[in-house]
Amino acid sequence: MQKIIVAIDGFASTGKSSLAKRLAETLNYTYIDSGSMYRAVTYFALQEGHQGHIDKEKLLAKLDQIEIYFKYSKSGYQTFLNGLNISKEIRLSEVTEKVSKVSKIIEVRELLVTQQQKLGAKKGIIMDGRDIGTVVFPKAECKFFLKASPEIRAKRRQLEQIKAGNNESFASVLSNLKERDLMDSTRKFSPLTKADDAIEIDVSEMSLEEVYHQLLEHISKKII
Ligand code: CDP
């Protein structure tokens, strides 16, 4: 069967990662969470910075020292930075608060986009993010763009956070989501936007199960 590239873009907490992961398992494809790469660089920058501040020049000088890779194990999808498993750390609110600032930096984007394109060179990949269908794989055979109301997304994100042991108020989760939406959508380089040929789905009133089946139906049409 012909292998294709599936790009799933959209706003934070629309279920992109869970959907992409499950679809990749079903299709026996590789799953890549591009957001975890931006989070890994942000985590690195925070480590190199001072008291929660990021020193852009210092980050740029050390960009070539960043090695990010993934492993799939029983405990799920794991992100490694320079040999260290940082899967939990990259979900901390300190990282979430700064990630959209770091992902605006052109040098960071160039570095990560090149790595993402290499990962997809053999196709058979499902990647989720913000610019996968527009910049990383503009020729992807199947593109989706997911959206939902900010309140529904914030509720979902807050539940996820509670499960992970991070208690954050609904108001703070909502304000972070709105702030990131704005920064991601208005940045100069590869802003969050729907590719012309992407299938747009508003998941506000849909269960993850329903969205999964809808995506799988579209993908199946492309690979048969
Ligand atoms: O999981 P969540 O939806 O919160 O976001 P994520 O996928 O982990 O991405 C975190 C941040 O990384 C986004 O808010 C964007 O600023 C940035 N990002 C990006 O610029 N381009 C991508 N392809 C993926 C993420």
Keywords, please?
224 residues; alpha/beta; five-stranded parallel beta sheet; 9 helices; binds cytidine-5'-diphosphate
Task: Give a structural overview.
With 224 residues, the protein is of the alpha/beta class. Helices cover 49% and strands 17% of the residues. The chain contains nine helices and eight strands. It has a five-stranded parallel beta sheet. Strands 3-4-5 form a three-stranded antiparallel beta sheet, covered by helices on one side. Helix 2 packs across helix 5. The longest helix has 17 residues, at 170-186. The N and C termini lie close together (7 Å). The mean pLDDT is 94. The structure holds cytidine-5'-diphosphate (CDP). Cytidine-5'-diphosphate (CDP) is lined by residues 12-13, 17, 34-35, 38-39, 99-100, 103, 129-132, 180, 184.
